[in-house]
Every structure is written in C-alpha cells, then in structure tokens.
Amino acid sequence: MSMREDVYLRIVALEKNVDGGSLTAESKRYMERLIKLGRRNGLHLSRETQEEIKTIKKKLSNLCIDFNKNLNEDTTSLSFTRDELGGLPEDFLGSLEKEGEMLKVTLKYPHYFPTMKKCFVPETRRKLEEAFNSRCKEENSAILKELVELRAQKSALLGFTTHADFVLEMNMAKSGKKVAGFLEELARKLKPLGDEERAVMVKLKEKECQKRSLLSNGELHAWDTRYFMTQVEETQYAVDQNLLKEYFPMEVVTQGLLDIYQELLGLSFELVDPASVWHPDVTLYCVKDRSNGQVVGQFYLDLFPREGKYGHAACFGLQPGCLLPDGTRQMSVAAMVANFSKPTADAPSLLQHDEVETYFHEFGHVMHQLCAKADYAMFSGTHVERDFVEAPSQMLENWVWEREPLQRMSKHYKTGNAIPEELLDKLIKSRLANTGLFNLRQIVLAKVDQALHTRNGLDAAEEYGRLCQEVLGIPASPGTNMPATFGHLAGGYDAQYYGYLWSEVFSMDMFFARFKLEGIMNPKVGLDYRNFILGPGGSEDASEMLRKFLGREPKQEAFLLSKGLTVKLDSSTPCPC
C-alpha cells in the first residue's frame, strides 16, 4: 500500500463494514495493521503533506543506502612491521597481504578485532582504533546530520513529538520515556560492576607498561579496552583465545551447529548440490519438518569475506513464507551472511569463540525466518516488534556457553581431540568476564541513538564522547566520530538500538525458565519454542507469545543474574519492561 491513498481509504471503509466475526484473528490484525501503517505514512493527511512525506522518505532511503555503501566499500588499510604487530599469532600474520617488508591490516572485522584484542603495541592499536572510528567520517557525518533532521521533520508532519516516539509506537516499549527509564535503571545497576572491571584493567595496564617499559598515566584509552578485556579473560579466567580457536574449525562448528538446531527444533537439513549460488563460497540447504517430511524452506550460508560484500554478520530474508492466492504455501528462503576468516594453505578457517556465538545468533534468525507459519507476508519470519526481534536469537546464544553443545561443535583442527575439560570449564566461567563494561557500552550506543532521535541539533560525536566518559569512564579518541561508522543508525535500527538489551530480558527469561530447567536439548521444549515463539512470526504480540511459552508473565531476574548482578528473587515481580 505504502503511499496509495485510494487503497488506504478502501481498507478504512472495509473495516467499518466488515463483520469482525467473519475474519480470522490474523486477518483482523492484518487489516488493523494496514490502517495503522497508512496513518504512519500520512495517508489521512492532505495531498500536499503526503507529497512532502513522500519526498522526505525518498531522501531518507537514498541517504541510508549511501551511508552503509560508504562503510561497506571503505578500503582503508594501514601497514605495519611484524614487530608493530607483536602478540598476534603466526596464522594471522601469514594471512595478511605483504607490502615489501610491511604487512597490510584492513579495517574489516577479521583484521581489526583480532589485532585490537591481541596486539601488545599500544601505538598500533591507537592508529587502528582511530582509523576504524574515523571511517567515512566526512561524508557519513554529513549524511547522519541530514538523516536525523529529516526523520524529525517527517515525524512532526505525522503528529509525533520526536522520531523516537514515532518509531516506538510499533514496539513493545511504546515510548521514548519508557526506553530512557529502562536504560537509566540498567546503567545505574551495572555502573558499580563496570567501575570494578575498569579498576582491574587499569592495574593490568600498569603491569603491562612496567613489563614493556612504557609510560602509564593510570588511564584507559579507547584503544586499550578490547586488549585489556582479552587480558582479563586470559589472566582472571585463563582462557587462551588463540589456543581455543584451534578447537573451532569452521567445518566442525557448522556441522555441530546444524545438528543441534535440527535436533532441537525437529527439523532436517539437506545440502542442495549442485545449487545455483552467487559465489563459489556459498552453500544452499533445504529444510524439512522431521515429523512429516514437508519442506519448510531453504537457507544459504555465505560465510567468508570478499571485496564489496556486506561487512557484518546478518540474516537476510529472501522470500517470505506465506499463503498464496490459491491457498498453497510459499516456502520461506533466507541467507546468513558473515565474514569469518578464510582458510589458508596451512590451516582451515578457525573461529574465535565470540564468532561461534555470532554464528549461532545469526542462524537463530534464519530459523525464525523459516519456522514462522503466518498466513500473510507482512507477519512472516522476523517481522515481529523490533525490540523483540533479537530475543529468539539471543536465547539460542546460550548454547555456546553450555558443555554438551560446545563439545558437539568443536574438535582440534590437527589432532581431532576434544576441548580439554579444564579449558572448557574456564571458557564457561569466562562468560561473566567484562560483562559490566560490555553492557555499559551497549547502553552508551543505545543512549546516543535515543538522544539523536529525541533532541534537535545534537552533535553526534560530542554526545558519544560525553556518554563514553559519563557511563563507561573511558573517553572516546579525539578527532573520531564513532556514530558516523555506526551502521545501525542508517540500517533500520534508528531509535531502536536499545532493543538488543530490552529483548535480552526476554531471551534470558525463556532460557532459564524452560531450557535450563527442563533440559537444553529437550525436544519437547524445543518444539514448544518453535510453535509458540518462532511459529507465529508477527501474527501475535510478542507479549502474548512469551506468556504462552513461559506459562506466566515475563520477569527480569534471569537477565540481571546473567549479568553477574545479585537480585532479590521475588516470583510475584513482573518484568519492569
């Protein structure tokens, strides 16, 4: 319908005349949603205003495309000597392109994050971090400023005080005020934990500076955080990430992951070979319901980086699962895209544990796309409230922190041995490592996003710098503009980044209330999950799906416990979200 006023007026008339009892619940929801979307597009307003909104929407669309295109096509690289890349493993150094005696480090994830985590040369980290958070600075800063202004303008034309209120009307949160309260309360609870973690990291930095004869001013910089977070994992929890990744070769992880999802959700995956794919690295699978052999859908896996490819990990719905006019069902098709390190001549692709977690998370979105059985394309797959959309995938991340699943998707790439028990124990305990600072950073990003979309004339870099200092206690690097590199702001998450934390409240509640209690590989719970959480798609409110799966109202305790916070357990307290 989008901007078709004639269609909108017919649906409004239909709603007045149709007998509500003759419609299914989903059809009624579909009609109500169409009318609401019509109003959100301004179809109830004058023609002149509609044209203005249409012009703004077109501009916004083009600006968002340009913002992310700039980031995806950024080819900035920095060259370093082997000494300047001290601390990085040989397999990583061997994978880098050589420029004479120098090695070329790009700002793509498979280069940037391992270097920031393991390189012990602060100057190298500083140069990389400043370059990373200055990508496309000039062009994207201007685009972001215009995006924010146009969004505020459009929301005002539609009768909303702020763009955040316009966006949140369709979410579980409903208003910017509620989101602000949620973030503020969570920041307050996490701050003491963040302060403790920062103090530990400052001590580690002082020791490191003494060891390497470097000057220390007792402060942490933006380029220190990932390095010393890794140090915390390796010293306090003794998890050696370089050793650990030797147990996560891509093929073993993929097979283990596919087996776990098949068993848990009552599905079977079959490799389609030969398949029509867009690159030789891509594979295609057909998914069937194990109970009756019916085809549920298909998914593509596109896991390795290449030039010009989307730079993050994500799931893309390619064809919605829905009813066709003749009453038959169109199968759902999805693609999981990632940028894991490619195999080299000496070793297969080896995944860091956090990459295994990303893999599990994004594949959870694939399953949401395929398992939903909504009648209408509008409610297919992950078309749920945006602040709930991450919950099903976040819930499945828990499997990469549990003993049995970890054993099933790991094996040493040379010896074929299982992860030693001691290393496995340390890994599982390390889940709480840096949880305060990690989540406070998520709050910083969510608050920047909310601030940009609730207050006029804000300088994004300034606001980000202020919040880093206030919430994290670690300043942003001078001259950088992280929000200009923050793809979510132009990728459909505007005023909605808080949703990652908001939805985690529900993901943890689902995991602890059902799977942890009844068995993490319990097929009955897995089927309940598939039927009550994945199955409806967006054809029901998320709060209703949760009530059915949990058998009660959602609560916040499991979420707070998962962050290492102490909570007073009170079964009668509902979730403050």
Give an account of the 3D structure:
The structure is a single chain. The protein has 577 residues and is of the alpha+beta class. It is 51% helix and 8% strand. It is built from 22 helices and ten strands. The chain has helices spanning 5-17, 25-40, 47-72, 90-95, 109-118, 122-132, 137-157, 163-168, 176-211, 225-236, 241-245, 250-265, 353-371, 391-397, 403-408, 421-429, 435-452, 460-472, 499-518, 523-534, 542-550, 557-562, and strands at 77-80, 97-99, 102-106, 267-272, 283-289, 295-302, 314-319, 322-323, 329-330, 332-337. A five-stranded mixed beta sheet has the order 4-5-6-10-7, covered by helices on one side. A three-stranded antiparallel beta sheet has the order 1-3-2. The protein has a two-stranded antiparallel sheet with strand order 8-9. The longest helix has 36 residues, at 176-211.
